[in-house]
Design goal:
Helices cover about 45% and strands about 10% of the residues. By secondary structure, it is mainly α. It holds the Pfam family SLC12.
Length: about 80
């Protein structure tokens, strides 16, 4: 079964899609020769962005790039130390 992103959804999140396109341009310009790139994982808003569109954004950011580590926090400060 093919996965489909509707035209309505694409229009509704056009600004976010353009932002991801611009981020890709900047990653290619500044990080295409890096050994590894660390990027904050974009977090989709529930019931606004479908899973297929979200995965398309991730594919857009990472395709033909050096290895990329997508990281995400939970907005909680943590202090880690070893004694």
């Amino acid at each position: 079964m093919p996965i489909h992103v509707s035209e309505t959804e694409l229009l509704a999140v056009q600004d976010k899609t353009n932002r991801h396109l611009r981020l890709r341009e900047l990653l290619l310009e500044h990080s295409s020769e890096a050994n590894m790139v660390v990027v904050t994982l974009p977090i989709p808003r529930k019931n606004i962005v479908s899973a297929p569109l979200y995965l398309a954004w991730l594919e857009l950011l990472t395709k033909d790039m050096p290895p990329i580590l997508l990281v995400r926090g939970n907005q909680t400060s943590v202090l880690t130390f070893y004694s």
